[in-house]
Amino acid sequence: MKFAIRVYNLALEFYYLWRRPLSRVINPDSTGKERARLTKAIVLAVRQLAKQTKVSSETKDLAAFISLALVAISEGIDSSVAAWEKRDYWVKADKFRMEWMWAGQAAEKMKVAVLKEDFATIAMIMPQIALKFNKIEVSDNHRLGTPWVGAYKKLAGIS
Fold first, then answer.
1. What is the structure's pLDDT at 28?
2. Rounded to 5°, angle at Cα 51 from 67 and 55
3. What does pTM read for this prediction?
4. Residue 3 pLDDT > 80
5. 40 burial class (0-12, 13-18, 19+ CB within 10 angstroms)?
6. CA distance 20 to 57
7. How far is 43 from 28, CA to CA, in rounded Å?
8. Tens-digit pLDDT profile for residues 12-35
9. What does the chain look like in DSSP terms, one character per residue?
């Protein structure tokens, strides 16, 4: 009888030992981190674009990258706000959306200007974008590299 009780207790122990609930999965690449990385890359692209003296393929890539990055930022706003809306923080969510509403509009203007190669319009849009990101600091030892390489082909849909 004692043996049967011990076996039963061992079976229960193994059952509860292996039936523990799993821990939650944490996504290290959240939209907030992606937005921070993209804003720093946009600041770098704006700085590099300001240094350009003539129109070249790099100039087109820089302008196209800024447009694509702004599109990515504007698409990630809803997923960032979803957690606030779950908790009924509607005012905070709407305020955040209004703060970033300009990104989609500027991205569309940049896209049209880049595809038409209207660099006068791009020159007018750039200070507005730079003003929005004036508080973002990017160190000289950043690890972002040059993410704008090949952006014009991607924007134009050229393979």
1. 73
2. 65
3. 0.80
4. no
5. buried
6. 57
7. 23
8. 666 665 566 656 667 677 888 999
9. -HHHHHHHHHHHHHHHHHTPPPPPP--SS-HHHHHHHHHHHHHHHHHHHHH--S--HHHHHHHHHHHHHHHHHHHTHHHHHHHHHHTT-HHHHHHHHHHHHHHHHHHHHHHHHHHHT-HHHHHHHHHHHHHHTTT----TT-S---TTTTHHHHHHT--
pLDDT at position 101 = 94
Q: Is the pLDDT score of 45 beyond 80?
A: yes
- In terms of C-beta distances under 8 Å and separation of at least 24 residues, what long-range contacts does 14-17 make, across chains too? none
Q: What would the pLDDT profile of 137-155 be if each residue is shown by its tens digit?
A: 888 888 888 889 999 999 9
- Helices 57-75 & 90-116 angle (0-180, nearest 10): 160
Residue appearing with tokens 């082909």: 153
User: Could you identify the residue written with the tokens 């600041």?
Assistant: 43
CB half-sphere exposure, 74, CA atoms < 13 A = 15
